[in-house]
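Two quick folds needed for the group meeting slides. Do the first one here.
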Amino acid sequence: MKEWNEFYDQVHKCQAKLAKEELGITEKTENIDEKQVLELMRLYFHCYHQTLGKAGVARFDRLVEELFSGLERSFEKIGERLFKYQMKFIDPRILLDIREAERKIDAVVLEEIDEVLNSEDSRLLARMYIISFYNNIVHQALLQKLSPFLDILSLSEQTLGLDIEWVCALIAVVLDEALVKEKLRELGFEPKRTDSFHKLMQELVSCIKKENIRPQMDVFLTEGFRNVRHEIVHDPTRWKPSEDEVNTIIHHTMELAKGLEISKTIE
């Protein structure tokens, strides 16, 4: 990201210059109050937009090319991972058709955006910028909501090398037991802390059959996934699930939830 590093260096130099001239703040200044922090942020974005506006056409094109080149690599990796995951739920042939349709839609949308950008309609561009700004705020709020999850994910990766695949698998296998116990309570059986999972599953199948309902296959498979749960929970660094195994575990948990028809509103 050479171009962007140079760009942000210019922004920071501009901010430092204005901070000294307008606020009397330098790198050595201590005890900056809240009002000064807000003014520094204002100066930062003033310098950002000023530097962006002064960039020549060739430089701006390089910035955009560098930005999208990094995004393209990330999107390719994410797209490949998503495709493998979706194949657990959708026939690959249908999935390929869906992705091709999405690609065509994206192309049409980008064509329309390019047309607007090339139109030099300042009023429309300003409105697009405002909407984009508020969309960014929404995305930031969503990321903030995920902060606890992201912190734990970062900790697990840095300390034990356990990535998002393990975290997702962990949530899924723990959710299995919660789903089973919730369904048992719904059917009038209160699980005890001393009950083995084998006993809980026997009771669950028995209760479902008493309701004259055919238990779904994933209800029977749940007890087998208990062995996988043991490895994921108790010995994760020695038995880390692969991408395909994680997809299978998540698929099973979602099918189990559908089979048990548990649906609770989260407050």
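Then this one, please, same format:
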Amino acid sequence: MKKILRYLILALVLLALGLFVSYQLRQNSAKNQMISPSATSVLSIALDDIVIDNLSSIILERKQEGSKEDRVSKWTKELRTSPGVAIPSWIYMFSLNQDPLAFYGILEVKDYDKVFSYFANTHANQMSFLDKEIPLVSILVNSHISVVFNKEYLVYKIQSSKQENTTDLVDLLKDKDSWVKYKDLSEFYNLSPKGHISYLNKDRSVAFSADLAKSKVNFLLDWNLLSKTNQQGYIREVDPTSKALYIYNTIDMELIPGLKSLAKAMVPQGSDLSYFDLEIAKDSVLVNKSRVEIGFDQDFNEVQKTINYTELIPNITYSFYTQELREVDLPTELIYPFSITLQDGFSIASTKQQSFANLKKKIPNAPLQVYVNFEDLPLLVDNSLVRELQQNKAKLLLDSEWLTSSSVRIWGSLSWKNKDK
């Protein structure tokens, strides 16, 4: 019995050693991925580390789901077994100067026939032959993902805007003699922040890292704004945990495109946007509304009739700095009717008729804060991502601090619960 136990222990030790050696070899091999020397930023994803660090939760989810296969499981299975390309332990993607929000990746083709068969079975209608002699194949996977491959390499692109063609991928593949290994890019290698997902741009003005643990993503962002920002002023004091959503920002709006677009759609043109806050309450607001209907009397004469009714709308409040403002100055494109109050230097717009006479203001201890409890958030727009976050009871928390007068650190987390649990 002791002899069997010794052999069992030896076998486990050898297995662990083999796995460790294999892991290290894959880690070192991943650094040989090809990158364009013109890369302006690098985005990396640690595939092996994500699996290892979340192995227990992956096994548990598979047991609970049984034979059910969700989209993520299906995708990872296909990625593992079908494409015929070398999937490294780390995926390195890079952006180029012409579009910082488009990311390119280069993978070595191990089996051209498998690659071709995979796309022929899944995206036959999106495939086109650019050169049958090489051969060179192009696929517009969807409006945001495109692929070009030959017998040596597969290059792909992921971008936020809609893609019309794969010309840039073809040019990238033709320029393969200029490619360099990731480990030879001194401006990125060993300088990227550590995390399951990391991002670093060439001038080091943005460094981002995120770790996935069970049903939670923790992230950290160091951001050099490249210009000094005014850190003076007050904010409205609000208890974020009593809201479904609360955001306030004192960072230059020009640097935050999404928030800038939202704020500019809600405030009068030319307003001071050095401060903006937005809150959505858990409860709704009952408002009185009216509409005019056209009908006919008994003599078939056209008559107009005013119908009064009530409607539940989201309880939304937002504010910004002001000196002088009239209610009519609010944008007319707003979906809901807002009343506006001038109080202590703030313009406060709200869908709920309320007094802000007891308004409290304070000096902010952070340049930016975000709190979103998606479970309590009303569905303002029919968006599949927001609906998915609501169903999974997701929460987004974000806090920040000034590092210098021109740089900020932002950290936070996104957590969720499986909607099937």
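Slide caption for protein two: The two ends are 44 Å apart (CA to CA).
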